[in-house]
Write a structure and sequence with these properties.
Elements: E1 2-5, H1 11-23, E2 27-32, E3 37-42, E4 59-63, E5 83-85, E6 88-90, E7 96-100, H2 107-120, E8 124-126, H3 144-157, E9 160-164, H4 171-177, E10 180-183, H5 191-198, E11 204-207, H6 214-226, E12 232-236, H7 254-261, E13 266-268, H8 270-274, H9 277-290, E14 294-298, H10 316-332
Parallel strand pairs: 7-8, 7-14, 8-9, 9-10, 10-11, 11-12, 12-13, 13-14
Antiparallel strand pairs: 1-3, 1-4, 2-3, 5-6
Helix pairs in contact: 2-3, 2-10, 5-6, 9-10
Bound molecules: phosphoenolpyruvate (PEP) and manganese (II) ion.
Manganese (II) ion binds at residues 102, 272, 298, 308-309.
Length: 337
């Protein structure tokens, strides 16, 4: 249930509604838009049928949200969510580019790549310190050392950091270093992890599970939102289909569909979405044309020796060339980079 407050409703009126929800053991999720404030009631909403909320001062109307995901839905919040991190806005007019290696390998590698992607216009550095590898004998990540190297690269370049957290017991550690916590495709339905990142206030980049429907994806985001963390971005990274030519099939449809169904920013990962370097540029362009709010792209200065995902990583000069081309696509759809 969503309680829509009147334009100009006072803080006291909002608090009064919240106090009533608490009396009925419901929690609130407040969304303050430019026009009006919306209050989502979370919990067993059936009790609301017994309270005449509409009669309360400052309340305009009470709406039922039909979608199974409530807080993530456009019905609940018509305006786009814009996530602000140290002057960078995700979900606004600018398309935000995140770039960097699949995994942090050593200091020289991460700083070289960070400096080059920054020069090309990226605002956020990606790089895994905890890697969710399909096989247990593959490189698992540098862990704390990797986080420290990301911090050094941030200090040198001023780029924000997005890096993956794989388990509940590492959230505090990863959150000390990360500006954005990445939840990987393999963990999209790790509900304990989703709830736990919902309890902190760091922005979360939630990747779509490789066989998740759009509804399951939005319900995973709902787990995070329902705990009070409103800063969630949805990342389409390709799904598993019968096609084997590419590593995954990037679901380009998901971009406009998610933008219609939800107010959350949508990020596209053309690297895992294709698995092939030569497809990263065309698919990145398609993503921006389809309405993506950002891209997360793998870049490596020496992909041949990369410990993971070398075949889908762009060389720094290819990334730089792509950024020039993407600016034109962004302009054509009324955005900028
Ligand atoms: C990654 O970003 O390196 C990664 C492991 O992605 P995904 O979870 O989408 O496979
Ligand atoms: Mn990767």
């Amino acid at each position: 249930m969503v309680i829509v407050m009147k334009h100009g409703a006072t803080d006291e009126q909002i608090q009064h509604v919240v106090d009533r929800l608490h009396e009925f053991k419901l929690r609130e999720h407040i969304s303050r838009g430019d026009e009006r404030t919306l209050i989502g009631a979370i919990g067993d909403e059936r009790v609301l049928n017994t309270i005449p909320l509409e009669a309360m001062p400052g309340v305009e109307k009470v709406m039922a949200v039909l979608a199974p995901y409530k807080l993530a839905s456009r019905e609940f919040q018509p305006e786009d969510t814009v996530i602000k991190i140290d002057g960078v806005e995700i979900g606004g007019k600018k398309v935000v580019i995140m770039a960097g290696p699949c995994a942090v390998e050593n200091e020289d590698q991460i700083t070289t790549i960070a400096e080059s992607v920054k020069d090309s216009g990226a605002l956020i550095l990606r790089g895994g310190a905890f890697k969710p590898r399909t096989g247990p004998y593959s490189f698992q990540g540098l862990e704390i050392e990797g986080l420290e190297l990301l911090a050094k690269a941030k200090e040198k370049t001023g780029l924000l950091i997005v890096t993956e957290v794989m388990s509940v017991d590492r959230i505090d550690l990863v959150a000390e270093y990360a500006d954005i916590l990445q939840i990987g495709a393999r963990n999209m339905q790790n509900f304990m992890l989703l709830k736990a990142v919902g309890q902190i206030r760091k922005p979360v980049l939630l990747k779509r599970g490789m066989s998740a429907t759009i509804e399951e994806f939005l319900l995973a985001a709902e787990y995070i939102l329902s705990q009070g963390n409103h800063n969630v971005m949805l990342c389409e990274r390709g799904i598993r289909t019968f096609e084997t030519y590419t590593r995954n099939t990037l679901d380009i449809n998901a971009v406009p569909v998610l933008k219609q169904l939800s107010h959350l920013p949508v990020i596209v990962d053309p690297s895992h979405g294709t698995g092939r370097r030569e497809l990263v540029a065309p698919v990145s362009k398609a993503a921006i044309a389809a309405g993506a709010d950002g891209l997360i792209i793998e870049v490596h200065n020496n992909p041949e020796v990369s410990v993971s995902d070398g075949a889908q990583s762009l060389l720094p000069e290819q990334f730089s060339q792509l950024m020039t081309e993407l600016k034109k696509i962004a302009e054509a759809v009324g955005r900028s980079i």
